[in-house]
Amino acid sequence: MVRHGVDTSFFRPPAEAQATAPEQPFTVLAAGGYRRNFPLLREVCLRFKDDAGMQFVIIAPPAFREAFAEFPHVRFLSGLPDEEFLRAYQTASCLLQTVENATANNVVMEALACGLPVVSERIGGIPEYVDDTCSLLTAPRDADALAAALIDLRASPARRNAMAAAARRLAETLDWSQVAARMREIYATL
Fold first, then answer.
1. How far apart are the C-alpha atoms of 69 and 151, rounded to whole Å?
2. Contact indicator for 153, 116 with CB cutoff of 8 Å
3. pLDDT by residue (tens digit) across 60-112?
4. Which helix (H) or strand (E) holds 1?
5. Domain boundaries defined on the chain
6. Domain 21-189 has CATH 3.40.50.2000
7. Which of 52, 144, 171, 179 keeps 20 to 30 A from 69, CA to CA?
8. Among 86, 128, 73, which residue's Cα sits nearest to residue 103?
9. Separation of alpha carbons 20 and 124, rounded Å
10. Plot region of 12 (φ>0 → left; ψ -120 to 50 → alpha; else → beta)
11. What is the pTM of this model?
12. 3-class DSSP state for residue 107?
């Protein structure tokens, strides 16, 4: 199997100076619009409405903004230029991906390339692109399990750092140059 690729030269961890800046508060990034489970994402956000230490940045189509308007701990963004989108990855603590279904998921791969631990569900192709060194996967559609995974990740900066390094290593195996080389090998056997 040849998996989908990612541009690891553009999607990359922050520069050393950015990486060492103190993180206050813990910032959860959720991004995308197609096949995303926004009701589930809203349920997870609801569980942290009184937790000032947990912030959410949601990058999605404007049509979903109203569902999160009541939450002061949620920043909702739409239509970001590429550099701002990259900066959102680089300044987040982790990615939270709630989906209806998924095959290759660009947001997951971009997050990995930026060195973000991934919290998601065991749905569709997501388990094919992450492993337990860089992600926490829960049962599908379980807001409590996703919230618990975020709490666990926030509680352990050392674990988060190890997962970030593992995420980048995994993404490097999915770099487009690696994917292209595998495709050339396949074509050479035909």
1. 23
2. no
3. 999 999 999 999 999 999 999 999 999 999 999 999 999 999 888 999 999 99
4. none
5. 21-189
6. yes
7. 144
8. 128
9. 35
10. beta
11. 0.91
12. helix
Which residue has tokens 């666990």? Answer: 152
Euclidean distance between CA atoms 114 and 10, whole angstroms: 9
Give 153-164 pLDDT, tens digit per residue: 999 999 999 999
Q: Which tokens belong to 47?
A: 């569980």
Residue 90: count of CB within 10 angstroms of its CB = 18
Contact 79, 101 (CB under 8 A): no
* DSSP code at position 127: H
Q: Which amino acid is at 84?
A: E
For 56, phi then psi, to 5°, come to: -120, 135
**Residue with structure tokens 């690696």?**
178
* Cα 21 from Cα 17, distance rounded (Å): 7
Alpha-carbon distance values, 40 to 81, 90, 100, 140, 151 (Å): 26, 24, 9, 10, 17
Q: Which residue has the tokens 């999160």?
A: 68
